[in-house]
Amino acid sequence: MSITIVGLGLIGGSFAMALRERDPKNLWAVEVDEHTIITAQKRGIIDKGYREGAVPLRHSDIVIICLYPDAAASFIKDNMEYFKKGAVITDTVGIKSGLIKRINPILRSDLDFVAGHPLAGREYKGLEFASADAFAGATYIITPTERNDERALDLVENVVREAGFKTVLRISPERHDETIALTSQLPHVIAAALINSGGGCEPGLLAAGSYKDSTRVARINSKLWVELLLGNRENVLARIESFEGCLAEIKKAIAGNEAQALGAILEEVRIKREGIMQMPEKSL
Amino acid sequence: MSITIVGLGLIGGSFAMALRERDPKNLWAVEVDEHTIITAQKRGIIDKGYREGAVPLRHSDIVIICLYPDAAASFIKDNMEYFKKGAVITDTVGIKSGLIKRINPILRSDLDFVAGHPLAGREYKGLEFASADAFAGATYIITPTERNDERALDLVENVVREAGFKTVLRISPERHDETIALTSQLPHVIAAALINSGGGCEPGLLAAGSYKDSTRVARINSKLWVELLLGNRENVLARIESFEGCLAEIKKAIAGNEAQALGAILEEVRIKREGIMQMPEKSL
């Protein structure tokens, strides 16, 4: 099978390194940065890299697009004529409904677009942080639609398992975007607000583990995150508002010196948190 | 030197294990739980444990109180007559001003109370999670007042260094409580609100690293944290309000679909976050 990876950043580079070890027939890359292509070729991560899609796409059975949301949509649109007949296109964008709505109506009828999301982001970017074991044990989300062929879904599932993902979940795009607003986008927004709320203090002096952990993702890739937050705006706003309500409840108990009410809230939280982390990952 | 540790939980137990290796003349403990005393004696963590303070305190040069805030204040008050002449009393409570105000006015004139705070909390409690290297490389805060003798401050600093703390900072109690409201109490409140805001979702399904990190401390010890939050109420409320303002600013940019404003906020956050973590720890 011939594979093309589009975008050799943290995710694309890790895909290339992990799949390289499975010895595919051809492993090509499309990457706008010439220097990154040269590096990847020298290190043997890919067979060959291209600045544009035309040549490798014609012979690729699966195309894994590892670009930011807007760039991913544009790439598929702009290269529609080049994809091999019957090819499977997949992506790794962190929000799904909007992208699917942009792609499916313009997709050639012989092609299939399987939307995916590796739960393996990090607060770094670029090929230099990619690694062959970046996905080891991680979870991959696939968000099928009625437009998808079962064989295409299975192909993507197999490829991501080959790349090291342990759990592959199939969830509707809508459910994905609702949930990811809570589990990824809200924590990023909170981390950003927490960093900005430090006026008048030198948090570095007393930055305990809780502060470090809660602000880790504030080392944010602003270009990517503007797209993710605005691309999932309704869900993100709903989650922020729900969070604000819960924060106000705790604040009220503190302001009113209500030890019993505060204790009850914190105890409920502890039990919920332990439940969440014990919850087995399962398919929906 | 004879040392008594009061409370053989996570912090007290770790102190005992770490100081044991330095072979003090006597290493005693006061602990209300008989089973914990027996375990600690059997494992050789302490020379001898007592249910009450009267006997060991009479011969202890330094008493390290590792209890919750209210219990720490009560212990010192209730055992005032037993402390050895000239002894140094120190504590490990996470908020300082209130405790100092409760202790100093009632302290025998020959005693010195040095308030301390190990930045080494964990989301677990009890002797079973204690370890001899729990403090290795961590920061210890001492909050001196005019009532303190320089020799007493140095003694506590030396003992905590012997226990493994690498950096010892001296900060005023007021400054400590202001800063810790931002760097520890606010992240705990946020983690609790974040857990409670998950209604309608199954976050366990898509719990990425950011969610896990941001809610780690939601495995909260509710009894302890009610005391910490209410004991530092004014500072905590001010920090919650500042955070709410910063969150509202981000929310506004998302709601208004303002890519440029949102990008500017996130970029500022990234730079601040990198600055905080590079900031050298220094004395004030």
Write a concise keyword list for the protein shown above.
three-stranded mixed sheet, 9 strands, disordered C terminus, 284 residues, six-stranded parallel sheet, 12% strand, 12 helices, homodimer, alpha/beta
List the helices and strands and how they pair.
The structure is a homodimer of 284-residue chains.
Chain A: E1 2-6, H1 10-20, E2 26-30, H2 34-42, E3 48-50, H3 54-57, E4 62-65, H4 69-78, E5 88-91, H5 97-103, E6 112-114, E7 116-118, E8 139-142, H6 150-162, E9 167-170, H7 173-196, H8 203-206, H9 209-215, H10 222-231, H11 233-255, H12 259-278
Parallel strand pairs in A: 1-2, 1-4, 2-3, 4-5, 5-6, 8-9
Antiparallel strand pairs in A: 7-8
Helix pairs in contact in A: 7-11
Question: Can you put this structure into words, describing what you see?
Answer:
- The structure is a homodimer of 284-residue chains.
- Chain A has twelve helices and nine strands.
- With 284 residues, chain A is of the alpha/beta class.
- Chain A has a six-stranded parallel beta sheet, with helices on both faces.
- In chain A, strand 5 (88-91), helix 5 and strand 6 form a beta-alpha-beta unit.
- The first copy, chain A, is elongated.
- The first copy, chain A, starts with a strand and ends in a 6-residue tail after the last helix.
- At the A-B interface, helix 7, helix 8, helix 9, helix 10 and helix 11 of A face helix 7, helix 8, helix 9, helix 10 and helix 11 of B.
